[in-house]
Amino acid sequence: EQGQRDDLEVLAAAQAAADDQLCGIYLKTLSMQSADEAARAPIHQLFHHRLGARYTEFYAGKTFALPGGALRWEELLERRWRINGFSYKGTLGEAIERARTLLNPAQAGWSVIGHGDAHNGNVFLTPEGLVYFDPAFSGRHHPLLDLAKPMFHNVFAAWMYHPQEEAARRQIEWHDDGQTITVEHNQRRLSKLRLMFSESKMRRVVDPLITALQARENQPRKHYITLLSAAMLCCPLLTMNLADRVRFPAPIGLLGLCWVVQVGMELETSW
Predict the structure, then answer these.
(1) Fewer CB within 10 A of the end CB, N or C, for the chain?
(2) CA distance 3 to 24
(3) From CA 241, how far away is CA 134, in angstroms rounded?
(4) Burial class of residue 68, CB neighbours in 10 A (0-12, 13-18, 19+)
(5) Would the CA dihedral through 7, 11, 14, 17 be positive or negative?
């Protein structure tokens, strides 16, 4: 992504093979899980549990510094959002409450054996292909929870790991009219590398997995995308503290909030 290596084709081939293998594991291990079994899965520490104590520690009652201004967190929760010309349904507070409900650990349903935290920070590229490590959150859990971390971090989160570099290349403007926060920023396209990760995971894992779940549950596709979106919302919001101005300059804190909205809320109109 930084132009230091020229082996995108090698990495793309390794990613395709790993995603095909992953989908095979999902389909082979897909089975029902009771609510009690589901509630004990370690993966919930990355999602629902973080919507509790960590959310309170990071944001509740705090002031969120923005470029040239600031808002109380509770004010941000009440706002609607319009980002790069697209309006989103509801408020940030409603999206977070919806995520708390959808991600409730004690739900019976389909499960797979998964790594749980398989973003690229936990993957080695070896001559034999991709190898996962650090299985601290592995176990049997819902397959869409297993996909949330790689789907967000590998595709959308360059700003999270390189905030100073991203701040230097990002232009971001915002306006608050008391009801809607309007943002314009110039992170409108994915790099070739991140587009490759996105396309491979969607085509080789997400789409066939949803097809398999639909055959068993007869739910519309939107049902699964909504659950995946709720889990992905937790990634920009709760992996790190977006209000921490030592780690994140104000423009990157706002950009992080935009990603919470863009992955966790539904557009007003179809796109």
Answers:
(1) C
(2) 33
(3) 22
(4) exposed
(5) negative
The yes-or-no verdict on residue 113 having pLDDT over 90 is yes
Token pair of 34 as six digits: 């009771």
Nearest CA to 199 out of 12, 57, 14 is that of: 12
Cα–Cα nearest to 166, from 67, 66, 251: 251
Based on the number of CB atoms within 10 Å of its own CB, is 256 exposed (0-12), middle (13-18) or buried (19 or more)? Answer: buried
Give CA–CA dist 116/132, Å, rounded. Answer: 11
Instruction: Write down the pLDDT at residue 271.
Output: 52
Task: List the Cα angle 32/145/234 in 5-degree steps.
Answer: 145
In this prediction, residue 7 carries a pLDDT of 86
Let me know how long the chain is.
271
What pTM value is reported for the model? Answer: 0.95
Q: How far, in Å, CA of 94 to CA of 207, rounded?
A: 27
CA distance 261 to 62: 19
- What CA–CA distance (Å, rounded) separates 250 from 64? 9
